[in-house]
Each structure stands twice: as structure tokens, then as C-alpha cells.
Write a structure and sequence with these properties.
homodimer, mainly alpha, 16 helices, 325 residues, globular, two-stranded antiparallel ribbon, Farnesyl Diphosphate Synthase
């Protein structure tokens, strides 16, 4: 596990450092408050998965120019949605740090989110490629609707697996998919290659979100940077819970629903939930589905000849499954 | 006055009806809640000034194709910022109707604002013209920063005229300017013509905001659709107040500041403010400056031969000065 992590990091250090610089250089706010708020969310330990994937996907398609500036689009977009989502979810802590809206106020969080979205689009426009801009705009539509969908179904214990998949696809996977697709478009790859990288990104994104959702029930809180069970306290039912509810017999299902509907449940209640998720297979089912998605993601890379970059994309897929990247 | 209004309306009816249909057709949400919230803000009596200007500017540059779909960009963008700004300003009523966030909740207002922004950008991307998309993305950056700037200086009685102009330029004028510029770009107009229409739009936008700011002190509340003095109660100092403060002698200035800093001022206090704005010329100064901007806007149209469309653009400029369009 740690070996895999090390193998990945040793090969992405130079890219990560380029991305980090580009994120600073391209922010360009004219107000100090915008800069401070944006940096609060941008430079608080994000792993740069999305820009990194874009750079690697451009590279595997033979792109020779520098893709780093374009890759910042995906981190700015991601940061914009985090600012708005934390506000919508009434979150308190992200990555062990108080959320931006609690430090700078709700209004600033809304408007700096808008600014980051606009920066992402300005940089997209600079590519001069309408097809790239279409992908970015489409992602933004999807993400806002995915978040609204989640919001509308907050606390609903009848959320289905299909609906869950639709939500996480829009909320999380389309951005990762888009990063991979834009990498291919930038390199001028043929459509079948772009489609393969889209497939890789979509499945990686779905698995990534499932792994994240699992962490809420299986992680070490100090490593996670927030308390366990936070999703459920916010009324977010994720696959481990959804599947368990569908498999638990009547009285256990009722017991679970009772706990879920009380969003101030005790630690003991939470233990009970975890026990049921293990007993009725919610954890295992989610792990298996994430694992299947990763297999699909890796299979989509079969169009490429073996290379350093292909190995890296494969390793990243394996790693995404095992822990929060 | 009413004659001018009638002359304008009789000539724009067909365009307005096309714009209205296009605003319905291009919204394309997959969630009912998104549709409802977006329609709450989109179809509540907006006058469609921005899309109309885009259509007219394309037409005056000889554009033969249908510009209506592209023009929706500017109403969607406008609606997106209204949703977020009403939230940021803690507004209660807009155009005589409860604001969207009070009906659908803050979270929905944030996310539907994001969706409308994204729709605007998707439609921009469909034009296939990166220069159009650059204008749109730039406008979005400016608007978010203009609003943050205003927020940062909320309640500040030392706000200068220069700062006020910078704020209204970003908050309001750049969008109207952008609508005019994009009309020209769409028509493939040469840069000097596009620059003239930009100049027209910028100055019209500035005058439009000044006229709007004046209404807060001079309008009939039932016509305005909200109570007078609302800007000041929100801590927004606008030109009539800024100029009056700069001209009032010491004790009157202190008296004014005292009223302004109490955002729950009485009707009598408000009367006192109005008296001072008349006495020290704040109303007159703002009216004059708006009038100058309209002159500049109309002068910018001198590059065009006389035509129906030119007359209409001139009439719209005159009308913007006289009342809320």
C-alpha cells in the first residue's frame, strides 16, 4: 500500500510542483479578500488529482506542450464547488481546517466561488477550443444539479442505488471524467481515444466517491480530518447505508431508519449502524462496486501501448480504491 | 416620456417575444426544483434589456442570422447574479415579489445561480467563438469581484466616488457592455465598431446603475416594488449620498453619517437625508453625471449610418436615464 503511494509520488513530484505554481500564478484577483478566501480553500492540502489527471491524459496522448495552465481549470472548478457545497451542507471542517464560510462569511464564500468558476472559464476560453469550453460548461451544469439533487433528497431513507449513482456521477465523476477528456482533446487525440480516457475518468471518479463515502464509516477520524458519520448527520445517504437498508430485514431496517432520521445520533447508535452495515453487506457491496469501477477504468486504458504514463494512470486508479487520495 | 416608452416598445415587441420564448427553451434543467427556482427569478418582470441590446447590436452590425439564442446568455448571467446578490445582500423583495432564497432556501439559490451561470457558458460555448467566451468569462470575474468589493465596503461612509464608479462598473456596466460587444463580435464587426458598441454599453450601463441608485431616493415605492432607502439600509452608499457627504459642511455631514450608520433609521431621518441630498446637490450631481454618460453612449453610435436600429439604441439610452427600464 505505502509502496504504491511512494511509487506514485516519486513520479508525480515535478508535475505537482508545476501545478502548485500555476494555481498561484493564474488566480489573478484584484481584491485581497478574494485572494485570501480562494487560497484558504485552494492551498489547504488538496491532492491535485484533477489537474494531475488532465496533465497525464494529455501526455499519454502525445501532447508535447505545457498543459499545466489548462489543468488549473479543474482545481479552480473543484475549489469553487467545495466553497458552495460546504455552505450548502453547513459543513464545519474540511481537511482538518475550519471551512471558508465560517472564516470569511457566507456571502464571501458564495462570491469567491463564483470568481473561481469564472477564472476556470477564462482559462478554458484561452485555449481557444470551443470543444474544451463545452466540456467545462457542461461539467458545471452537472455539478450544480447533482448537488441540488442531493439536497432535495436529504434525509430520504428511500434513496435508491440508481439515484445515488446519478448523484455521485454528476457531483464528482463528471469533473474527473472531464479532466481526462480535456487532456485528450488538448492533445488532439482521435475521438475513440478521448472516449477511452473519458471512460477511465468516469469510472475512476465513481470509485473515488464510493471510496470517500466508505471512509465516512471506516476511517480513522484524525486521519480523515473530520468526524465519522458526518455524511449521515448531514442527511446524506450513501451506498453503504442504501445497500444495507435494502438488505436488512424489517425490524433492523426500522431500527436503522430511526437512527438515521435522528441526525444527532449517539456514538452507540453509530456503532449499531456500522455493525449492520457489516452484517448486511453494505460495506462489502460498496467496496466490490468501487473495485469493479476501477477494473473498468483500467481496462479503458488498453488502447494505449505500455508506457510510464500508462503505468502511473493504472497505479492512481488502484490507489484511489484503497484510500482517499 | 410615455411617448418615448411607447415608441421603444412598439418596435421591440417582436424581439422581446422571441427572447421570452428562447429563455424558456434553453433553460434545460433535469430537476423540477431547478426549473422552478430559475423561473422564479427569470420570469418575474425583468425587462430583458441585456439580451435586447445584444440582438440590436448584432443587427446594427449587419448580422443576418438569428441572434436570440445567444442573447439568452446575458439574461441567464444576470439572473444568476441576482440570485447570489439577493442572498449576499439579505434582500427581501425584488420587483414586488419575495426573493428566491426566501421561497426556495439559501442553498437552492446558491446552486441554481451556479446552474444558470453554467447554462450561460454552455450557450456561449455553442457559438464556437473563443472571443465571445472570453468576454463572458471576463464579465463573470468582474461581477463577482464588484459584488465582493461592495460587500467589503458595506457601511463605509468614506467610500469615494472613484471606488463607487469602479464597483458599479464591475457590478452592472460590464455585463451591459459585454452584451453590446458580443452582438458586434457575433456579426463579425471590425474591432473599431465593436469598441464603439462597447463604449455605448459601458456608458449606458453606468448611467443605468446611477439612475437605479437615484430611484432609491426619488421613486414612488409602489412603482419601485420595494421600499425606498433600501440600499442605505443594506449599508450601500451610492453616488447621491457619497457626493452629498463630500459637500455637506461638518455638522450636517456628522448628522448624515449618524443616520447612515443606524441601518434602522426612521422615516423622519430618511426625509432629513433626502433634504440634504437636495440641499448639497447629491441628487443633481448624480443626475448630471448619468446624463453625461448617456451623451457619451449616444456619441459612440456616430460610427453608424442612420437606421431604425440606431434610433432604437438612441431611444433606449434616453429612456434608461429617465426611469428604471
Amino acid at each position: 500500500m505505502d509502496e504504491l503511494k511512494q511509487r506514485i509520488y516519486s513520479r508525480i513530484q515535478s508535475d505537482l510542483s508545476d501545478i502548485e505554481s500555476a494555481l498561484h500564478e493564474n488566480l489573478n484577483p484584484y481584491l485581497d479578500l478574494v485572494s485570501k478566501t480562494a487560497k484558504h480553500i485552494l492551498f489547504s492540502g488538496g491532492k491535485r488529482l484533477r489537474p494531475l489527471l488532465m496533465v497525464l491524459c494529455a501526455r499519454i496522448c502525445g501532447y508535447q506542450q505545457n498543459a499545466v495552465k489548462t489543468s488549473t481549470i479543474f482545481e479552480y472548478l473543484h475549489a469553487a464547488t467545495l466553497l458552495h457545497d460546504d455552505l450548502v451542507d453547513d459543513a464545519v471542517v474540511r481537511r482538518g481546517t475550519p471551512v471558508a464560510h465560517s472564516v470569511y462569511g457566507n456571502s464571501t464564500a458564495v462570491l469567491v466561488g463564483d470568481f473561481l468558476l469564472a477564472r476556470a472559464l477564462s482559462i478554458a476560453a484561452e485555449t481557444g477550443r470551443p470543444e474544451v469550453i463545452k466540456v467545462i460548461a457542461g461539467i458545471t451544469e452537472d455539478m450544480s444539479q447533482g448537488e441540488i439533487h442531493q439536497l432535495m433528497r436529504k434525509g430520504a431513507t428511500d434513496l435508491s442505488e440508481t439515484e445515488y449513482l446519478e448523484i455521485i456521477s454528476r457531483k464528482t465523476a463528471v469533473l474527473i471524467q472531464g479532466a481526462c477528456r480535456v487532456g485528450a482533446l488538448l492533445a488532439g487525440a482521435p475521438e475513440d481515444v478521448a472516449a477511452s480516457l473519458s471512460e477511465y475518468g468516469l469510472n475512476l471518479g465513481l470509485a473515488f466517491q464510493m471510496a470517500d463515502d466508505l471512509l465516512d464509516y471506516t476511517a480513522d477520524a484524525s486521519v480523515l480530518g473530520k468526524e465519522l458519520g458526518a455524511d449521515l448527520r448531514e442527511g446524506k445517504l450513501t451506498l453503504p447505508v442504501i445497500h444495507t437498508l435494502s438488505k436488512a430485514p424489517g425490524d433492523d431496517a426500522v431500527r436503522m431508519e430511526k437512527i438515521i432520521k435522528n441526525n444527532d445520533f449517539s456514538n452507540q447508535d453509530f456503532e449499531t449502524l456500522i455493525d449492520m452495515m457489516n452484517k448486511y453487506g453494505g460495506i462489502r457491496y460498496t467496496t466490490n462496486m468501487a473495485s469493479e469501477k476501477i477494473k473498468t477504468a483500467k481496462a479503458a486504458l488498453s488502447v494505449f501501448q505500455p508506457s510510464e504514463t500508462k503505468l502511473l494512470l493504472t497505479d492512481i486508479a488502484d490507489y484511489a480504491l484503497n484510500r482517499k487520495f
